[in-house]
Amino acid sequence: MSFPLGNRRRVSATLPFSFLVALSFAVAAIAGGSKSPYCNNPVQLAMVKIWVDGDEGEYLAGLTASFGATLPEEKNKVPKLPAVFSNPLNGCSSSSSKLSGSAALSVRGDCDFVTKAKVAQSGGAQALLVINDKEEIEQIDCSGDVSPNISIPVVMVPKSVRDELTKTMANKRVELLLYAPTRPIVDISVVFLWAMSVGTVFTASLWQEFGISEQTEKRLNESSSKESSDAGTDSDNDQETIDISVKGAILFVILASVFLLLLFFFMSSWFLLVLTVLFCIGGVQGMHNIIITPVTRKCRNCPQKTVRLPVIGEVSILSLGVFLLCVIFAVAWAVHRRASYSWVGQNILGICMMINVLQLARLPNIKVATVLLCLAFFYDIFWVFISPLIFQQSVMIAVAKGKNTGGESIPMLLRVPRLIDPWGGYNMIGFGDILFPGLLITFTYRFDRESKKSMGKGYFVWLMVGYGFGLFFTYLGLYLMNGNGQPALLYLVPCTLGVTVVLAAIRGDLKALWGYSSKSSAMINPTAEV
């Protein structure tokens, strides 16, 4: 999910502006012939750039009215206009402030929008900005006079504009430039996000090829319980795994819903700080394991110096050094997490954490996978599409955008800045959209490996292709829905779980997959189940 960002501030909105634009056309279609021909202008997402004493500053996002002049798409086609507050501020009667050649600002209320536009135009204003009485932006329709004949652009902006511009205009000269740049159909950042998501799942699946010890690999190949017992004492790098059960899958989705509601109702700066600390802990653990595990495997027979630490006990100097570097990296990211380049560190920590999680948590068979992914499927749809009917806004989208945190989003996301979008912002994907399908894909890789299936007759390659197409359909749906947040699992579950079930049914493997018991899980951790 993505949202446009300004240079230094985010404009809050309960619904994406593009949804409001689509809604305005729907209302116009329903109204039919009752609309005046003067009130059928296309509603535009307006960019209001601000200059303070000649220096370019922030920009605001607004929504144009269904009447008045339309805004050009290029900023070099419009002049900068001095900002002036109407007097009276409601803009319902002739202003005592000089509006000639300016961008007039008035607050909503006391009279209809057409009257405000007429008053501003009669005073010589070149544009009118109507400040809403709440932070959300709404469409401005015709009311009162059915033939307003307004020739200046009319734009609604959020409530916060009033206080900010009042303070700035008290002792500084403020100029505004209004235009409506078009957004590209596809931003190249989506390609990078797609590649990171697919690459994370692919790496996590193949990690056991170079991320487990040689002794463990030998045990898996020879299936010898004696060797398993003998090697258990000297396989220090074997990670304990957790097999997810049906009850665990149901409980997880319930707890995820409860946690999402907690974030929605109680999200604040301190709550976000707690999430950031937890994210850093998980990221440090994942990064440490990803670095140290292959190194210790390759250097298993090399002499390693150790040091004894209080409480922890004896630990290798190499492991301690890598751990300290990971901690420094995570702390540096946390300190600079609001910087424009912080997405790089966030993605590195997030990818490391997800690869580590996909090594620790495993699906034992398709039965559990079906329960978990089907519940996640409906979980995603409910909290994105159905929750607005109960909570007046999408709970999932509100949490992802950083509700009540000053626009700072939660760190459990992969995000890439939009590179060619004039509105800026980020394209994002939640960890759940990678971890849920990733659990199934890593299971199919283990199944293919232990069943000695070839690439064409196995399931892993087909599911990787299905996951890639599922992400493609997700972003296709995002653009077809004018940028509204999409429940990615709506597309990913059919393209992964659906592909597995169909292929297994055709090949006659469905029964074997349904009650499958992994050899590697039984050997590495025979009792762990959640």
Automatic annotation (TrEMBL):
Q: What is this protein called?
A: PA domain-containing protein
Amino acid composition bias (Basic and acidic residues), ranges on this chain: 218-229
Q: Where is the signal peptide?
A: 1-28
User: Which biological processes are named by the entry's GO terms?
Assistant: membrane protein proteolysis
Protein's organism: Gossypium mustelinum
| Function statement | Intramembrane-cleaving aspartic protease (I-CLiP) that cleaves type II membrane signal peptides in the hydrophobic plane of the membrane.
Family from the record: Belongs to the peptidase A22B family.
Report the InterPro entries cross-referenced here: PA_dom_sf (IPR046450), PA_domain (IPR003137), Peptidase_A22B_SPP (IPR007369), Preselin/SPP (IPR006639)
